[in-house]
Amino acid sequence: MDRIRERIEQMEKDNLSPYATLSINSKGRLKEEEECDIRPVFQRDRDRILHSKSFRRLKDKTQVFLTPEGDHYRTRLTHTLEVSQNASNEDLVEAIALGHDLGHTPFGHAGERALDRVSECGFEHHKQSLRMVDVLEKEGQGLNLTFEVRDGILNHQTSGNPSTLEGHIVRISDKIAYIHHDMDDAIRGGILTEDDVPESIRKVIGYTTGERLDHFIHDIVTNSLGKNKISMSEPVENAMKEIRAFMFENVYKNPVVKSEEGKAEALVETLYTHYLEHIDDIPDDLKRLLDAGESKDRVVCDYVSSMTDRYAVGLYEDLFIPKSWPAIKY
């Protein structure tokens, strides 16, 4: 059976770029373990992430629009899948893409801001994503992913500097994905119209969201082919910066879009404060982290950040909203 894995590893050597990170050259895992007989290491990482609880919870975590009334708005899960699709189907890229947002809070960046504000340790979702795969998954055992996947997850944010080209692919694919789908959702929600997009952007990368996504991907492939660098042409890179600034000004900071975020932040802060004061009420697998020397602050952040939007709202209602007295039966 070892020959199956070896054949796949040989296919990587034969078909991937000379600058690609090959499975056989991985720097390894936090804990040594026996090789799979049919799957290279990055395939195993992808599968572990795909089958993790934290990945499944992404289906009920906010992307941009809080609890939208409609079935077609993006969630954190569909965002993750779109990042993976934009990036490619190569194993290392796919594993990083599927894992990059596992540490995101309920209510998107509103929840992240709330935890960062109240936590003594601070809170950043890219660091929490790494903590999720290293420490929290599998009831505290972690997923024991390879160095390369862990590095890509940690460094997917704008200021990150991944050590592999595959990490850089995910980093830029993340931005392309959210610019594309957040604009699509904003148009669907009546926040923007296509005509609001500046002509200086449209004439360079396209007149619809689909055209712009296609243009970004083709430009990156064309300008990165055969190079030890992931890059865009200068006009497209400038258009990328311009459209990202446009989205921040007109969508991400839009008072209509953000109208419920203050409530979401207050809810997250309240849950954090409650469990800091009632630490015995957290799940048993997290209590084990306290026994191992982790701070209450860190463990409460672990618990609250892992919640889905729906679970957090339901928990808040159970803890703080008075319930009706049951009717008397005659």
Describe what you observe in this structure.
With 330 residues, the chain is an all-alpha fold. It has a single domain, classed as Hypothetical protein af1432, CATH 1.10.3210. The chain contains 16 helices and no strands.
Give a brief description:
Helix content is 60%, strand content 0%. With 330 residues, the chain is mainly alpha-helical.
List the helices and strands and how they pair.
Layout: H1 2-15, H2 41-50, H3 53-57, H4 76-87, H5 91-99, H6 108-118, H7 125-140, H8 147-154, H9 165-188, H10 199-205, H11 209-224, H12 234-252, H13 261-277, H14 284-291, H15 296-306, H16 309-320
Helix pairs in contact: 2-5, 4-5, 4-9, 5-8, 5-9, 6-13, 7-8, 8-9, 9-11, 9-12, 10-12, 13-15, 13-16, 14-15
Query: What fraction of the residues are assigned to beta strands by DSSP?
Result: under 5%
Total count of domains = 1
Beta strands, count: 0
Shape: globular
- The CATH homologous superfamily corresponds to Hypothetical protein af1432
Q: Label the structural class.
A: mainly alpha
Quaternary organisation: single chain
> Which H/E pattern describes the elements?
HHHHHHHHHHHHHHHH
The CA-CA distance between the termini, in Å, is 71 Å
Please report the number of helical segments: 16
Query: Biggest sheet: strands, sense, closure?
Result: none
Please name the CATH architecture.
Answer: Orthogonal Bundle
Low-confidence stretches: none
Features:
single chain, 330 residues, mainly alpha, 0% strand, globular
